[in-house]
Amino acid sequence: MSPEACTLSFKDLEKHSSADDCWIAVHSKIYDVTDFLDLHPGGGGIILRYAGKDATAAYDEIHAQGILEETLSSDNFKGLLDQSEVVILPEEQKKDIDKIEKTRGQSTSTENYTKPDLFKLISTHDFEDVAEKTLTTKAWAFYSSAATDLVTHHANSNFYRRIMLRPRVMRNVTDANTQRSILGCTSTAPFFVAPAAMARLAHPDGECAIARGCASEGLIQCISNNASYPLASIVESGTSTQAFFLQLYVNADRPKTTQLLHKARSLGIKAIFVTVDAHVPGKREADERIASENVASAISGSVAGNDKKGGGMGRLMGQYVDKTLSWEDIPWIQETSRLPIVVKGIQSAADAKTAVSYGVKGIMLSNHGGRALDTSQPAILTLLELHRICPEVFDKVEVYLDGGITRGSDILKALCLGATAVGIGRPYLYSLCYGQEGVEHLSQILKDELETSMRLAGITNVDQSHPGLVNTSDLDYLVPNVEEHPWIKWRPKAKM
Amino acid sequence: MSPEACTLSFKDLEKHSSADDCWIAVHSKIYDVTDFLDLHPGGGGIILRYAGKDATAAYDEIHAQGILEETLSSDNFKGLLDQSEVVILPEEQKKDIDKIEKTRGQSTSTENYTKPDLFKLISTHDFEDVAEKTLTTKAWAFYSSAATDLVTHHANSNFYRRIMLRPRVMRNVTDANTQRSILGCTSTAPFFVAPAAMARLAHPDGECAIARGCASEGLIQCISNNASYPLASIVESGTSTQAFFLQLYVNADRPKTTQLLHKARSLGIKAIFVTVDAHVPGKREADERIASENVASAISGSVAGNDKKGGGMGRLMGQYVDKTLSWEDIPWIQETSRLPIVVKGIQSAADAKTAVSYGVKGIMLSNHGGRALDTSQPAILTLLELHRICPEVFDKVEVYLDGGITRGSDILKALCLGATAVGIGRPYLYSLCYGQEGVEHLSQILKDELETSMRLAGITNVDQSHPGLVNTSDLDYLVPNVEEHPWIKWRPKAKM
Amino acid sequence: MSPEACTLSFKDLEKHSSADDCWIAVHSKIYDVTDFLDLHPGGGGIILRYAGKDATAAYDEIHAQGILEETLSSDNFKGLLDQSEVVILPEEQKKDIDKIEKTRGQSTSTENYTKPDLFKLISTHDFEDVAEKTLTTKAWAFYSSAATDLVTHHANSNFYRRIMLRPRVMRNVTDANTQRSILGCTSTAPFFVAPAAMARLAHPDGECAIARGCASEGLIQCISNNASYPLASIVESGTSTQAFFLQLYVNADRPKTTQLLHKARSLGIKAIFVTVDAHVPGKREADERIASENVASAISGSVAGNDKKGGGMGRLMGQYVDKTLSWEDIPWIQETSRLPIVVKGIQSAADAKTAVSYGVKGIMLSNHGGRALDTSQPAILTLLELHRICPEVFDKVEVYLDGGITRGSDILKALCLGATAVGIGRPYLYSLCYGQEGVEHLSQILKDELETSMRLAGITNVDQSHPGLVNTSDLDYLVPNVEEHPWIKWRPKAKM
Amino acid sequence: MSPEACTLSFKDLEKHSSADDCWIAVHSKIYDVTDFLDLHPGGGGIILRYAGKDATAAYDEIHAQGILEETLSSDNFKGLLDQSEVVILPEEQKKDIDKIEKTRGQSTSTENYTKPDLFKLISTHDFEDVAEKTLTTKAWAFYSSAATDLVTHHANSNFYRRIMLRPRVMRNVTDANTQRSILGCTSTAPFFVAPAAMARLAHPDGECAIARGCASEGLIQCISNNASYPLASIVESGTSTQAFFLQLYVNADRPKTTQLLHKARSLGIKAIFVTVDAHVPGKREADERIASENVASAISGSVAGNDKKGGGMGRLMGQYVDKTLSWEDIPWIQETSRLPIVVKGIQSAADAKTAVSYGVKGIMLSNHGGRALDTSQPAILTLLELHRICPEVFDKVEVYLDGGITRGSDILKALCLGATAVGIGRPYLYSLCYGQEGVEHLSQILKDELETSMRLAGITNVDQSHPGLVNTSDLDYLVPNVEEHPWIKWRPKAKM
User: Fold this and answer.
1) Where are the beta strands (DSSP E) in B126-255?
2) What class of enzyme is it (chains A, B, C, D) (predicted)?
3) What ipTM score was computed for the predicted complex, to two decimals?
């Protein structure tokens, strides 16, 4: 990026306001983004709304500063915006900024709601409640939404409620040890931060605050491929001994993925979690409704060329993901990264076996938090399916799961049923309403609940978790016994 | 119809206002309908309300213009209403017209409700919501109502929610093909518009708007036997290459059915869907309550002779249906129509087998949208029953089903379980609140949801749908294994 | 009763206002009821509230005139109340009368509620709704209440919803015949009016209105042992060819039962339904709460000696029932009545077999409308239990059931599962809000629903009902297979 | 405690207001509690709030007078507070006292709520309702709260609703005998008062009122280890022939337990119920939220050193419990007490067998009222599990259970399934809103309901209860068949 940039006026900027010639200003720097419109993971339409304008507020809401300069070449930099000009924001944009501020925690008493002191929060549900009341409508919709009718979303947590515990009493439970090794990395607890995109929507420090919180709590963070900070910034926010995993969406533009994997290796990332359950975006209606509102305002405004179909933040973000991804790509990812590979998004015993046959180090049972395909079965049910159909998998790879885990007792149940660890996603995003401190407080709550559950169940070490401590009878009838349908034979359509 | 009709005054008309001598005016033409009272599918009572009066508004609400002249002979035409006379509508009738206008979409902002822009609707539920708020009370009651306690109506959709999907991951899903052949006709998707009566209640273009929407979307329309437009008008609304099916209620007056089948054949209709699950009208209480209100006003008014029992629009419309219809009539229908026959309304394996034995080309599993016999089992359960008792049926005929399908994932499940296609009924009626555009938008939503579901499940062609992708465990215990009751022996009453 | 009675003043009456010397006036006649206090089925406390006073209003609410003179001897008659005296009712009593009038249908527009025209009622639920809004609080509580937590009460109807129908289509269903023979008596439909006490609470004509309604509808009435009219009055309200059954609570004072049975025989009653599931009163809390209010006012008033425990109308009424009743009493009842005996209240296969072994003609599966022992199993489940454990019962006796039947489809299901007929209780009490006409209208609704259900299920005669038309899978797992507990052995407490 | 105490001024007291030098006044006596801060079962923080102040009100809310002098040595007594000084209560403390008064029943008409007359209460639910409306927020939270998501709390009672009764009819049920022997002690009914802490929160007479109520009702009280009155005071409140049991939490300071057991024996206690399901405190969020409010006010006030984590009353109270307790301690408890031992808190067949092998006299199936580990299985399910896995246990020890029992029919079901007796906990705390009379009235209600249920089920003596009277089919699929998981093998984590 050339340092000797010329100074441009606001009027200069306004001349480049079409899809064929599109400049925007971000933090007083002016960029030509015409060629980038088609490449933007979030779609070109959203950028066009700011063609010829200052896009700083909208940009900051989602991206950290480094990312822009990482993405564009120096040729795109056109100059500095004249600082003497008063930037007059359109009314709508001002409101956006207000909303962003609202989410940033500086002021917590907007609209008669006072964000409670952190120490008063005693469960993940409390964090969710605060998030719903303090995040912008857009951020809340993006974080909390799930696919279509929310059947899987609700089943994800309800299925844990349907597993009963069978505590053993009269054991000496003075000390309780929750420490566990995950892919060879030591964690103070059998859970890690699951990858979740765009943490900046909740707090300006975004993923970096999570990294610092994990450092002080001795936990592992699996960084989202759609993080709002550059990977290096996040890793450097932590300590030198801290372990990180990286989530990977394989990019349709493969060299970008190669570049990312090399960077991951150079930064000391410990494993790659290849996400395979969201190669096409799920239909998250709460998210999409926000988008259709935006489209409406875009249409009624002067910016032309916007896509009439809309599409939520999630749908837009997924556009770069490679839909051709298949098992044959695993060796390439292994070779490129030279890191342990975990396949995240396994939803059947059949695929678990396939994954194992490709030599991955772990599999993560997940339905993407109910955000991809509604009515797909909860991960805890897939865990049971593995025991029915391919129990040997547990001896060959580490098995993780996520989705709907809100309590220490949920974690204990997953461990009893053979999981090495679980991922916690949305709760950590919600905890960011309090920044790093929120991340730490949430971690302590989950550890405390897990410890209490272990002691009350009669064990003192996570390694003592065993299936005899859980009663899964209320789910057993739902567990598939075979890879295909248990009693319906496939009869391909004959030509009639 | 004699062109040289005399002109009659309003007073002339008023003289014929009894059941024995009943004239009405429709669009300034005066007809003697005395002999037609008993033949009116909707019952004579409703006509008698307008004896000696102008019935235009009430007529238009339900019928298209052609139908009246098709039905009556030229002898019934008595003259033209004197145009110089000012027609003074009774207060009640004016309100009726207001309500009709309300449904026609011209004005969408009545009573503080603004009908949203079409592109903001993103699911079938959105269409239902708009319909509830914009249709007349009567039309909403007729479309949305279902039998007695709504048990079947709710089970129809809930049973789809209870089937879980078991997606396979890491498949190349770049292209998704939803095209399917239905009775030899190509459809861009494995669903068609199920027959649903009286579309004019929602939009003045009624079934013709559906026909045009299907044309542009490449879908097949199964035209209702109780359509508000003449069959020819509907077929001619579409394109010459477009495929139509026709629903058939066999008329107690068989020659009428013969005439209809000949007309269908001459119009190029591709198949006849004989409806067999509503030979007597179900008890749809929401619909009947509207009717009892009407009876109340009739009784308190001056028109005598109305049936005290009332009966909803559905009950009245069903009066002409032949209750003697039995399997022995199938050959007659086949011979008369010389078209492929589908039996619509199969609810048991026993009847599926019988239908196959009569050489029909398809069977449609249906409980008439929960509108006929409450607590009858959902079609998706009957589909499972077929696999248990007579799986060979799937090799011999095409199997369709309808009722409660609101999501692309519902369609995918039906296909995985062996259905060739599904019918979508009420949602298309609701989509008519936006006319042809609504039909198209709804079709796009369903295709988009189906495509997304297919890709997320790991398939790219509807022919790849297979039972291993669904987990039906939550319904399996409900599936009958045998034609009769599995463990109770029939003990006919002995004389005691 | 001496005709030459003396005239007594209100002051004379007031002198006898204690438990040791208690006179009351009813319809201007003064009675000494001191000795009767302990014998009153409703307990002495309620009479004592009117000691030395005019009890006409309270008496009329529950009893028909004949009953008092039938019960007391002529010695108890003390004279006529001086008609010249103005009877000044205490305020509370006036309100009682107002409430009674409210229930009597003369005025239906109290408190902004207008009782709808009868023809607008289209289901049993509509009758229940009207009853709730027009009956006195006390009457509604007595009729609608059920034992403790209402688990059985709700299960009674829900279990019918959980049975699915499997209609057979394409049958000629022109004519539908609902006629059935019940204990040799012809009924136009396979249901009868189940015994339900104190119909006068709903209408002054009480059970007589039911009798007349049954006459015109061709249905059988099973008269309650606690009817508010004398048996003879009820029977005489009908026609000479009409069939009646009589419910029997065996009285702890056996000669009274002997007398009743002889009377029944002389009146041409066709069968005796011995009630065996309510030998001690159930705890119907809604009913008891009304009672505790009454006790409260009694205590705060001047009348002493009232029972602090209260007890609802039902509990009081049950006091005369013989708690020693056992199977050994059946032969005595048979010999005394020389009529066919039905045991009403069978709740297990074990007792069904016992009943058969005693030579009864029918058994009625019943949990007393959920009013006796909460969480006892619904009759429809016991019906299934009989098929599992002792199907031969169906060949030996007629089987009836009641409780929770509100739809024609419920009746059809019971028939398919082997019942000869069902009893309808509460709905008929509710229908009395419209007197005899209500009884007829309700009967027509039920017949119409049954006919519609039969036709839509593909049958035309109740004798064609068979188990293959119902899917009971959702209840099958609840059906006991053996008389005792299927897998728990009884281990009587050893002395420890 | 030295009688010749000096008189100290309020100012003298104020000088000792730190954690290192902490005096408080209780009922005009001044104590040095510095060394006791760490030993206080409720934690030192709560005492520090009153350091240098008069703590009488807060003390009285929870403790009876005797307990303080029993706990401290005479050295701790520092003198009498000068009575001439006017004690000026801080505002907050005054409100606390108001709230306490509110709970004491003297005034029942605060805030528009009039506590109903006792005789109007007819079920345990009525008592709960009154308690919710009259107890302080703190007391209600402590009594009514349960662990985390309340899953077990609700299942505890719902599981009883899911067991159906199968009454046998036509039995002579004139007399019903509910008497039962519990550990050799005669009880008028097969239930006893389960141990529940701090009864003074509901009534100033606390556990003594329960003792007197049990005396007049012929019931056994199992006294809580955390009673608000000294053991001797409670025992002496009753009659000399009355039987008591004592709950035991083994103290980490074992000599205290020794002392307690010796005292129990000397007072004639009949059995020791060792509580084993709450060795670490459960997370009762409603309770903890109250605590976090208190912490908030403490932090914003001047008292330093409070624990930021808070912790509800229950969590604080549990701090002294010995977490090392194991089966090996049973012989020591047996020898020390020389009384029959019951292990309370068994939740699996495995532990039931172990308990029997240690020679205990009874086991109590319990999940601590849903207050310990959420989603642990209800006791009634564990009772069924015992029948599946180790039915011989019923021949060797008496089996009790508690949790969620609110009806006489619940008690009957437990008896039918082999329980000797059940414990009733929260309802008795709630009944204390009416003191001793409330305890008696509640007992009568439960006995009456049990008697009614027995008679309606066809039995007249609790010894006739047998499994054939209950239908457990709706729970059977949830009952574990084996000690370990029925189909999942434990695969300990291999090092990978």
Assistant:
1) 164-165, 180-182, 185-187, 191-193, 221-223, 244-248
2) oxidoreductase
3) 0.86
